Amino acid sequence: MRPFGQHFLIDEQVVHCLVNQLSDQQNKFVIEIGAGKGFITKHLIQNGFKVLAYEIDEKVANELRENIKSNNLEVCVRDFLNVSYEKLPTLNCCVGSIPYQISSLLIRKIISLSFQKAVLIVQKEFADKLIALPSMKKYTFISVLAQSFYNIKKVCNISKNSFSPPPKVDSAIIVMNRKKQVPELDRYTLFLRKLFTSPNKIARNVANFPLNFQYEILEKRVRDLSVDEIIEFYKNLRSD
User: Fold this and answer.
1) On the CB side of 106, how many CA atoms lie within 13 Å of its CA?
2) What is the reported pLDDT for 2?
3) d(C-alpha 50, C-alpha 74), whole Å
4) I need a labelling partner for 46 at 20 to 30 A (CA). Which of 86, 148, 209, 213 fits?
5) pTM for the complete prediction?
6) Measured between alpha carbons, how far apart are the two ends of the chain, in Å?
7) What is the pLDDT of residues 3-24, one digit of tens each?
8) Any idea which of 57-61, 70-74, 157-161, 202-206 has the lowest mean pLDDT?
9) What is the rounded distance in angstroms from the CA atom of residue 123 to the CA atom of residue 174?
């Protein structure tokens, strides 16, 4: 394994599937998170995209520059988690194969930067959390946070053998499209964290809801609440 826990994609079919998810992008500019040696980057450029590639590992970033010499590629050696809104030329679309250990942090970063679309390779277990529905075991804080800001679908599962070195688990491609109406991130995140400290409790016992709020919803367990119901809770609490 390389520094920073990197597993590099080597499967042509997978990268073609990923790039195909960008067929609706009229603005042919994409930000790549964790570009590695440029396997995905190369295919993006071949399909007419200009790429701003972020790579935290300077040695790997230098390999990327050597592997792809193109005017349509800019490489930035920096941790994407520390990138500010003002430093990004566009927030239309981002792609990347992201490490499991910081997946939740990167999802929140993508939310905070207001990307309109994200096409990501994540570990399969994490993908299943992002698309989980109420009452499912994997329906957690990160499920609701991500689904509150994005419509999310899992495109396909990816074998561990599609990477070098192969990770211990399989991965998946997910596509996230920004919703038009979203809550304010920081306060909403605090609200969700409080709510999901006790996911098996009845909703009315976890937070102070308005007296005139829908009684039948208040009697649900937190983990049985839909994203829309949770957002409705949040809006009512803030206006109460």
Assistant:
1) 24
2) 41
3) 8
4) 86
5) 0.93
6) 52
7) 445 789 999 999 999 999 999 9
8) 202-206
9) 10
